[in-house]
Amino acid sequence: MPDEPITTTPTESPIPPGIPPAPVAPTETPTSSPAxxxxxxxxxxxxxxxxxxxxxxxxxxxxxxxxxxxATESPAPPLAPLPTSGGSSGAFRSLLSxxxxxxxxxxxxxxxxxMVLTRGKGQVTNDDAQKLLRVSDATASRYLSELVKNxxxxxxxxxxxxxxHFVP
Length: 168
What we know:
The chain has 168 residues and is mainly alpha-helical. It has helices at residues 49-56, 89-121, 126-133, 137-149; strands at 27-28, 43-44, 123-124, 153-156, 163-166. The chain has a domain at 99-166: Orthogonal Bundle (Arc Repressor Mutant, subunit A). Helix 3 packs across helix 4 (137-149). The N and C termini lie far apart (98 Å).
C-alpha cells in the first residue's frame, strides 16, 4: 500500500481548500543570444490548476487576536530615601562604624581560633588554618601573616613549607 502512487485528475486538487500552494521557482525564457539583445530575459511564473483555482477564491485572513486585558496591578510603594551627605551623615557614619566593628570582631575571633589550634599542636600550617576556618589559601595566609606581624606566631620555612610556631 505505501508503495502505490497517488494519482489525481486535473480537476482534483491535492491541496485542501483554504491552504495556498507551495511557491514554485520562476522559469526563464531562453533567448537566442544574450549579447545581441539588450532587453533582459522574460521571467514567467509557472501556473498550475490549483494556483488558478486559488486565484479565483478570496484570500483567507487569520482571526484577529483579542486585545490584552487591562492592567490591574497597583503601583509599587515608594522606596525609602537613601542617606545622603546632607544632614544625615551622622547616622550613616554610625552605621558604618558599627559594621566595621562587627567585621573586626569576627576577624579577631578567627585569629583566636588559630592561636588555640597553635597552642594545642605547638605549630600550624596554612593548610591547617584553611581547614579550621574554611577560608581560601590567600585568606589563611593573611591571617597567619597578621599573627606573625603582631608577634603572636613565628614563621619558619619558606613558601610551600612554611610552619608557624607559637610564641610564648
